[in-house]
Design brief:
With about 140 residues, the chain is α/β, with parallel strands linked by helices. It has a five-stranded parallel beta sheet with strand order 3-2-1-6-7, with helices on both faces. It has a two-stranded antiparallel ribbon with strand order 4-5. It is globular and about 45 Å long. The mean pLDDT is about 90.
């Protein structure tokens, strides 16, 4: 089994998503599952699986500049995915990178799965954006 992961959160970001994915990566190594991460972050060498991460160009997230939103430009990224030949795609974020991952699965004819780690829509009222909750939920259902 060869699994391609598309995530906007990996170390050095220290949040629940990246910690969960670190544990997953260690388990995948132990189980000898072939995997690659496509992410705007590249973990340091203290992570045994850092060489399995392809860094995707990104821009800082407004309000949280330590976080980045990946900009998956298809040209070079398509070649990296094709060279890896995934049997499955796992999308971790409902972002541009996640949409790209879903498109990869569709084009390659492989299954796609997703995991939901952060309830982004529930944060909108905190930032005075409660008027966007309906659109946020609509987007997540579509995704």
């Amino acid at each position: 089994m060869r699994v391609a992961y598309f995530s906007d959160s990996l170390p050095p970001i220290a949040d629940g998503v990246s910690r969960t994915l670190c544990r997953l990566a260690e388990t995948l190594l132990e189980e000898q599952v072939e995997f690659r991460f496509f992410s705007p972050f590249k973990p340091g060498p203290e992570h045994r699986w850092a060489d399995r991460v392809y860094k995707v160009p990104a821009v800082p997230l407004p309000l949280y500049p330590d976080y980045r939103i990946a900009l998956p430009f298809p040209g070079s990224l398509d070649r990296l995915v094709a060279d890896f030949r995934p049997d499955m795609v796992h999308v971790v974020s409902p972002t541009l990178l996640g949409m790209y991952g879903l498109d990869v699965a569709r084009r390659r004819g492989v299954p796609a799965v997703g995991s939901f780690h952060t309830d982004f829509v529930s944060y909108l009222p905190f930032y005075g954006l409660s008027g966007f909750e309906f659109q946020g939920w609509r987007y997540l259902r579509w995704f």
